[in-house]
Amino acid sequence: MWSQFLTSSSSLVNYWQPPTPSINSTSLALRRSSKHCPHRHLPGTADPLNLASTTARSSHQISSIHILTSRATLDGKPQETSTRILQEEQSLPNNVVEESVEVLKNAAKTRKVSTEKVLLALSVIEKAKLDPSRFLDTLGGSKSPGRTWMLVFAAEKNLNGGRYFPLTAVQRFDAVAKMIENGVYLGPVGSLTFEGRFSWKNRILAFIFERVRIKIGPLMPLEVSLGRNDNREPSSKDPFFIWFYVDEEIAVARGRSGGTAFWCRCRRISGP
Predict the structure, then answer these.
(1) What is d(CA 190, CA 212) in angstroms, rounded to the nearest whole number?
(2) What are the pLDDT digits (tens) for 151-180?
(3) Is residue 244 a contact partner of residue 126, using CB atoms and an 8 Å limit?
(4) How far is Cα 158 from Cα 154, in angstroms, rounded to an integer?
(5) Is this structure's pTM higher than 0.90?
(6) Which sign does the torsion angle of CA 251, 255, 260, 264 carry?
(7) pLDDT tens, residue by residue, 100-127
(8) 2-18+27-43+89-266 domain in CATH 2.40.128.280?
(9) In the chain, where the domains are located
(10) What is the C-alpha to C-alpha distance for residues 193 and 211, in angstroms, rounded to an integer?
């Protein structure tokens, strides 16, 4: 059983390739508990939005600019005139991004939004190229031990598919200490967590795991060093996340392998 557990957790570390454990998820209480993800309690949930037509319209929106050109007049003198040309808009309208964010928040609350709509919302947010200047503060908080986020949905490379993550997987980011923790929690059965440090540059969070902690039932946790204590700063040669969106409720990022995922803010899990 623990070999399956380790395999599942290793898959999570390798960027959200969802495992298919043979353990009965009901007996292990693996379903997300509403006490961990506050979005399941938020009232006034909007119906999932159909972004297909909205995105199609936004991708073809155009803006007009004027350029000055010279042309000859009848008397032979050059004259500047305004010629209107059409230029495709590069950035998406704010309302399209906001609608996509609401789709993901609804998915975090209900886990009933279709895979197609979640993938489309992730695509819109990736292409929006939002300002990342506040991402780290929101992701990791202003004091230790930081903030915790529960994995909701994991997509394949190039958003070619995806699904809601079947286990309770939580990541903690501490922006002050620059520490990261990645854990899979199996209720009373136990938990597996990886801990290490990270660096932040623009929207890229690179990290190095230094130790793993294994807890089985009521026994004391076993901590094992991964032998990575050289104190060098994590870089793009190490595992990393590229963050596309972070607010007080959800976060969206892509891993080094190309898979995209989103999380919802949750309470810290201390163990069984």
Answers:
(1) 13
(2) 999 999 999 999 999 999 999 999 999 999
(3) yes
(4) 12
(5) no
(6) negative
(7) 999 999 999 999 999 999 999 999 999 9
(8) yes
(9) 2-18+27-43+89-266
(10) 9
